[in-house]
Amino acid sequence: MWISFILASLLSTGLVASAPPGFPSSGNGLWFTKPANVWSKEMLPVGNGYLAAMVPGGTSSEATQLNIESLWSGGPFEDPSYNGGNKQPGEQANTSLIMQSIRQNIFSSPTGDIDNVESLTTDAGAYGYLVSGISTTNSTVSGYGRFLDLDQGIARTIWTQDKTAFVRSTFCSHPTQACIQHITTDGGHLPGLSYVFSSALETGFPAPNVTCMGSDSLRIRGLAASRGMLYEIIAHVRATPISGTPTNPPIIRCVQFPVASGAPFNATIEVAGSTVSEAWVSWVGGTEYSMDGGDVAHRFSFRGSDPHTQLLSLITAPATATASFATTLSQHVADYKAALTEKFSLSLGQVSRLDAPTDMIRAAYRTDVGDPYLEWLLFNFGRYLLMSSGRGVMPANLQGKWANGDENPWGADYHSNINIQMNYWSAEMTNLDVHRPLFDYFQKTWAPRGTLTAQVLYNITRGWVVHNEMNIFGHTGMKGGGNTAQWADYPEANAWMMIHVWDHFDYNNDVSWWKAQGWPLIKGVASFHLDKLIPDTHFNDSTLVVNPCNSPEQVPITFGCAHAQQLIWQLFNAVEKGFAASGDTDKGFLAEVQAKRAQMDKGLRIGSWGQLQEWKVDQDSPTDTHRHLSHLIGLFPGYAIANYDPTIQGGLLVNGTHLTYTPAQLTAAATVSLIHRGDGTGPDADSGWEKAWRAAAWAQLGNATQFYHELTYGIFTNFGPNLFSLYDPADANPIFQIDANLAYPSALMNALIQAPDVASLNTPITITLLPALPKQWPAGSIKGARVRGGITLDLQWSGGSPTHASIKVDENVGSRPVRILHMGRVVGTFTTAPGLSQSFTNF
Ligand SMILES: *[C@@H]1O[C@H](CO)[C@@H](O)[C@H](O)[C@H]1NC(C)=O
Ligand SMILES: *[C@@H]1O[C@H](CO)[C@@H](O)[C@H](O)[C@H]1NC(C)=O
Ligand SMILES: *[C@@H]1O[C@H](CO)[C@@H](O)[C@H](O)[C@H]1NC(C)=O
Ligand SMILES: *[C@@H]1O[C@H](CO)[C@@H](O)[C@H](O)[C@H]1NC(C)=O
Ligand SMILES: *[C@@H]1O[C@H](CO)[C@@H](O)[C@H](O)[C@H]1NC(C)=O
Ligand SMILES: *[C@@H]1O[C@H](CO)[C@@H](O)[C@H](O)[C@H]1NC(C)=O
Ligand SMILES: *[C@@H]1O[C@H](CO)[C@@H](O)[C@H](O)[C@H]1NC(C)=O
Ligand SMILES: *[C@@H]1O[C@H](CO)[C@@H](O)[C@H](O)[C@H]1NC(C)=O
């Protein structure tokens, strides 16, 4: 949905030739000379995690598009019989039989494959979508400029009209949970303003009731769908009167529109012309959805309380209701800097460009040639987007929290076979504190219903499971319809996400969090996979494998998929590494994990054309350029390949012979697979995220040229004029997918600093400095990078080589051995200890 803020009178045309006044001199921002028209290519995003908004940068008329993070159609709100896409408990016996025969068919199939697992899937039911509205605006005026200031987290529009210069600023404050839009002029007198709320552009979206709340606030109440969840927005308008302005009639008044009997109520707030020097509207929003209602005790209702009381307390809090605008703004900026820019910063030696708008810089960008300024800007923008969408109650979804219209691509859901993972890749390493909503989401919406799914679908009575496509209503079953197994058959989503849980602990060593949330999550998932691994009766090699499985979004449906085996192996290592800190005394569980880990297939096999096999049966095609790099998960973001250790991962039985690969052999095979997988423009898709993944993987292999090629190719192909990553950039109204935006910083970081996980706490953490530095970034610096083990790392380089590195260890860590490498040479070693700091200058 959207709110429209309307100003009086129209204007003449003109463009600015350099960055608009107020644009950060650091160059850290996006600027444009025309208002936005197309949502995904041109508008500018702001958000505080709870709320998101897209700012078109209109002038006399501005239509700011709003969203609330939990505003979804579908789920139990729309369909009382909604059950998370699960088989009914009464079908358990039958499902077990089906599962048994599927497994048997796969093992006994000569190819190790079968056609489908359709009989395990269920109709998605009222799956739901993140809903919101659209808006367009067309005005151009003299002295026009709009920008997103990434130093302060503010979208601004400036223009001149009737010799008066206007400035409109929009931002969402995390401390107050409100978004604010402020307008002022240099002349000190604003023309008349009116504020209305509209959902008119929302097809199928029921019009809400808009009513006056006092003389200066609009209360907007509606349903997300005809039987959907209740939402409410309160918008409060304030202004600073020009001194001596009489207050009768009132400067600000709320007027209830006359409407036909039975039609939804509608109202407007008006600010009288020439009475105020500045005016601003603050809005807060919420729904009756609650993650806390997603368990058996709440009958999976996900229903919380009416949001009104909570919103009222937010909108009447002094920081929003009585503080001056300057105070509200400075509180926002201080919070923004503390969360985003003070703890971490990067320089690629870029030269700030203030002479050309961002869309022109983007249009001039070329693969391989590159432009360090744009590359740096995209890095900062990616972190900005994660922080602006990741700090609410829900995690960032396929579009962060920005959604256009009442049906968004792929439901703007939580695709959990690469996309959501990728969203969070940069969080720990660039020191962004955004992970907690993600973990709450697993605990509250995945684990409860996923416990039922484990029972009904797999006859497993410990732990829990989910599949690929996840909504906010605990959609844990396999989402069916057509032969969707390649999307739906992904019971390793939980294992992959647990790597994030483990990493959070590994980076921060927050023991009380680990005991309360991290460990129970990992234990639940590991328990499930312990029971799900079964003996391989195709090869009879005494290993344990998954069956059925497929690589994410790719057939065949087979057994022992490399992706799944590598992930589960990493999961079991995390159990062992985290056991002592968990306080858990269940030694039998640990022993079982260790035993099955020893026995399981490790998912590392070199195939007939020198490739790393994607499946246990050697059936990879050299011309398969599929978008996912599933079997290379152990290269990046994992470590089963990157830190391959033949003493614990070797020992394969192949054709009756025991084989152990050397690390060099395994790396060579991963390289062959990566080469054959292509550049991320495949027959199946040409999206940005697959190129970001490839860039990170090439960096992991230490190949700076290929890293830079993929990074720049992704920018060239998939990033729009507003730097949003686009699925189909040539489309007039392309699809926005946030994953490439959010993965970009981690891919770039992987060229500068690498420290992949290790199988055991006794194995040294190896930090490699500048492993894949492209020649386009000869000099630069990083401040505040985070490395697992509770390490903060600063790094400077020049002439393509490190000149200075320093580490500081957190106060709350134990001893971990660490080595620092550059160009294959050990340039430092230390053992972590609380508060340790050390510098390295000998490279
Ligand atoms: C479920 O598993 C248990 C334990 O292995 C087994 O005894 C039972 O028969 C299975 N139930 C079904 C319905 O297959
Ligand atoms: C068991 O599943 C089969 C195959 O899906 C189906 O045809 C049959 O009706 C089911 N039986 C019961 C008792 O649900
Ligand atoms: C904006 O311009 C586009 C293209 O010229 C037009 O289709 C659209 O209706 C205009 N929108 C408004 C709000 O005037
Ligand atoms: C309220 O009225 C305004 C002005 O006519 C209109 O633009 C807006 O769409 C209406 N809002 C709703 C929710 O119907
Ligand atoms: C709007 O208010 C009317 C009258 O109170 C009520 O019947 C209707 O359900 C409300 N509509 C919505 C969408 O809340
Ligand atoms: C593996 O063992 C099963 C019996 O458990 C047998 O049916 C199958 O033929 C064996 N496969 C091979 C390749 O030996
Ligand atoms: C295993 O045996 C098959 C069939 O003889 C052969 O095609 C394959 O290359 C062998 N694999 C290895 C790794 O030797
Ligand atoms: C990087 O990869 C490309 C493509 O495989 C290869 O030609 C080149 O030699 C590699 N460079 C290095 C330094 O390994």
From TrEMBL:
The keyword Hydrolase applies. Residues 30-239 form the Glycosyl hydrolase family 95 N-terminal domain. One of its GO terms (biological process) is carbohydrate metabolic process. InterPro entries: 6-hairpin_glycosidase_sf, 6hp_glycosidase-like_sf, AFCA-like_C, Alpha-L-fucosidase, GH95_cat, GH95_N_dom. It comes from Collybia nuda. Gene3D superfamilies: 1.50.10.10. Residues 325-752 form the Glycosyl hydrolase family 95 catalytic domain. PANTHER family: ALPHA-FUCOSIDASE A, ALPHA-L-FUCOSIDASE 2. It comes from the Eukaryota. This is Glycoside hydrolase family 95 protein. Residues 766-811 form the Alpha fucosidase A-like C-terminal domain. Keywords: Hydrolase, Signal. Residues 1-18 form the signal peptide. GO terms for molecular function: alpha-L-fucosidase activity. The keyword Signal applies.
